[in-house]
Amino acid sequence: MENKYSDKELQDELKRLAKQFGEDTVFINEMKKYGKFSPAIYKLRFGSWNNAVTLAGLKPVQKGYYRRMDKLAGVKQKITKRNVPLRLAFSVLIRDKHKCVMCGKSPATDESIVLHIDHIKPLNLGGSNNQWNLWVLCSKCNLSKGAKYESETMWFASTYLTKRLLENDKNISI
Question: Alpha helix (H) ranges present in 39-150?
């Protein structure tokens, strides 16, 4: 029986999705949602998903690891290299009770609210993706703050971090 699609067509689709997401691998759930072909075709043709991904010149997927979801508790996330890993973003959302730490608004009470995972100390000023350098802000608070590292924002951030430190009795470094 002749294959409907060539190996090259299947591999090119994997490469296209990897490029679209700006990543070096493609997950099965991404192929299901955004791809032209069923992941089952890849498994049948290449023996496994990771074989197909590797033959396309991409990195194999780590078992049990999932990268992206379209909707995550009100967080709007563009796909870029500056993104906070999704698991970390979700843990920050849980820690901050799914509401803006500045104004207290939540998508649970107002569906027009969009939450952002924001860096307290901006990356361009040496901040990191450490959980203690992240907080939840609504789009209004985040966009009005911008990438500023001003005294008012820092006063609020230090109050916020002190509260978290007391709640968790851990050393915090951002």
Answer: 39-46, 49-55, 86-95, 139-145
User: Is the separation of the CB atoms in 14 and 26 below 8 Å?
Assistant: yes
Distance from C-alpha of 118 to C-alpha of 17, rounded to nearest angstrom: 27
Reported pTM: 0.46
Residue listed under structure tokens 């649970």: 108
**Geometric angle at alpha carbon 137, from 20 and 19, rounded to 5°:** 5
Dihedral of alpha carbons 69, 173, 124, 148, sign: positive
75: three-class secondary structure by DSSP: strand
pLDDT tens profile 75-112 = 444 444 467 888 888 888 998 889 998 889 998 898 89
